Amino acid sequence: MKALKEKILQEGRLIDNHILKVDCFLNHQLDPQMIQAIGNEFASRFADEGITRILTIESSGIAVAIMAGLALGVPVVFARKKKPVTLEEQVYHSEVYSFTKKEQVDIFVSNDFMEHTDRVLIIDDFLARGQAALGLMDIVRQSGASLAGIGIVIEKGFQDGGRILREKGIRLESLAIIESMSCEGIIFSENA
Ligand code: 5GP
């Protein structure tokens, strides 16, 4: 997605050469036009998949997921990282290891919001080692729903998450794939 790549080049900042900071439009401040364009792009790529529900993880996936949900006309569920008292006992639960935060987090989705008849699109902001995506896939599996595919805003192609998911035969649509990044610049893969 050309506009996204230009935005990353203009506004992205590198931390320690392996974390891309895009707080100015995706992870802290949100650029509504860009977020909407991203959501529309996911919606058009998955338009023929019969999606009935979108699943993401709080918090950075929510904005793009809701824009995709708006375009597809389907509800958006976000996995919670803490189980609030209002969440009933009947929950799907999985675990995600965060390499950026260096901690294991539990994720929860109420079984009221994921059914075996659903066709689910998973959406997230970044794909690095694939831990968040695998945790969300585990929730879909527990519910008995079918997985249509995974939409990622920025895939770090130099980490192995994309390979792991593609080798499983999952339809993975990344809007920008970073082949390499260093103080000399960011290079995108031709495959996105
Ligand atoms: P994974 O689970 O694929 O290893 O990592 C994906 C998750 O880690 C994303 O949900 C995102 O929150 C975070 N993440 C991984 N790499 C980056 C990065 O370079 N920049 C930012 N902002 N978040 C990242």
Helix content: 25-40%
Structural class: alpha/beta
How many E-type strands?
10
Uncertain regions: pLDDT < 50 for 5+ in a row?
none
Order of helices and strands: HEEHHEHEEEEHEHEE
- Tell me the radius of gyration: 16 Å
Any guess at the CATH architecture? Answer: 3-Layer(aba) Sandwich
Q: What small molecules are bound in this structure?
A: guanosine-5'-monophosphate
Main beta-sheet annotation: 6 strands, mixed
Q: Please, what is the oligomeric state?
A: single chain
| Beta-strand proportion | 25-35%
Which overall shape is indicated by the principal axes computed on the Cα atoms?
A: globular
Mean pLDDT: 95
Q: What is the number of helical segments per DSSP (H or I, 4+ residues)?
A: 6
Between the first and last Cα atoms, what is the distance in angstroms?
A: 7 Å
**Order of strands, widest sheet:** 4-3-7-8-9-10
CATH fold description: Rossmann fold
Question: In CATH, what is the class?
Answer: Alpha Beta
The domain count comes to 1
